[in-house]
Automatic annotation (TrEMBL):
Name of the molecule in the record: Protein GrpE
Similarity comment text for this entry: Belongs to the GrpE family.
Subcellular location per the Swiss-Prot or TrEMBL entry: Cytoplasm
Gene3D superfamilies hit by this protein: 3.90.20.20, Head domain of nucleotide exchange factor GrpE (2.30.22.10)
Pfam families referenced in this protein's UniProt entry, alphabetically: GrpE
Keywords annotated in UniProt: Chaperone, Coiled coil, Cytoplasm, Stress response
Subunit structure: Homodimer.
Function of the molecule: Participates actively in the response to hyperosmotic and heat shock by preventing the aggregation of stress-denatured proteins, in association with DnaK and GrpE. It is the nucleotide exchange factor for DnaK and may function as a thermosensor. Unfolded proteins bind initially to DnaJ; upon interaction with the DnaJ-bound protein, DnaK hydrolyzes its bound ATP, resulting in the formation of a stable complex. GrpE releases ADP from DnaK; ATP binding to DnaK triggers the release of the substrate protein, thus completing the reaction cycle.
Keyword flag Cytoplasm: yes
GO biological process: protein folding
Main location class: cytoplasm
Coiled-coil ranges from the UniProt annotation: 24-58
CDD domains recorded: GrpE
Name of the encoding gene: grpE
Length: 190
């Protein structure tokens, strides 16, 4: 290096030269910093939009479920009335002429109540003779049977109900099982 070049290098830079050098090196760093901030802001904006869509979708589902199952508690309470009317019609003395008008009134009231429940998507589950389904039925007992398939419903103590496909109350049933093998008797006198 010549003395002249050394002096140029050691000499203080003019304001213009300092600004130029800062602009060249600093400008690139500033551009990179701003690009990183922009990418982060885009990412945050996309996440916010996705979160809003998820919130909207969840809200719509919640409203739909609220509409569908708003009657769940009321319908469940009405099932006790249905059970009482059914028991009343079953135990009434149908041969007694004095009781017949009351029995007919109870049967009509029961039919009207069941029709009203059905209009509001409360469906009866009466599984007599069907295969046992633990999602819809509650087994109260098991009974040996030669006439029914094993694991099928022999008797229904209480019908079950669903509301819009969701179980409101399981049917209480007696389930069949295969008859146990009788011990083989050996004829000792033969």
């Amino acid at each position: 290096m010549t003395d002249e070049q050394q002096q140029d290098q050691d000499a203080p830079l003019s304001e213009e030269q300092v600004a130029q050098e800062l602009e060249q090196g600093g400008l690139q760093a500033r551009v990179e910093e701003l690009e990183a901030q922009l990418a982060e802001a885009r990412d945050q904006a996309l996440r916010a939009v996705a979160e809003m869509q998820n919130i909207r979708r969840r809200s719509e589902q919640d409203v739909e479920k609220a509409h569908k199952f708003a009657l769940e508690k009321f319908a469940g309470d009405m099932l006790a009335v249905v059970d009482s009317l059914e028991r009343g019609t079953q135990v009434a003395d149908q041969a007694n002429e004095a009781v017949k008008p009351m029995l007919e009134g109870m049967q009509l009231t029961l039919k009207q109540l069941l029709d009203t429940l059905r209009r509001f998507q409360v469906e009866r589950v009466d599984p007599l003779g069907q295969p046992f389904n633990p999602e819809l039925h509650q087994a109260m007992a098991m009974e040996e049977s030669t006439s029914a398939e094993p694991d099928s419903v022999l008797k229904v103590f209480q019908c079950g109900y669903t509301l819009n496909g969701r179980l409101l109350r399981p049917a209480m049933v007696v389930v069949s099982k295969a008859p146990s093998e009788a011990p083989v008797k050996i004829d000792e006198q033969a």
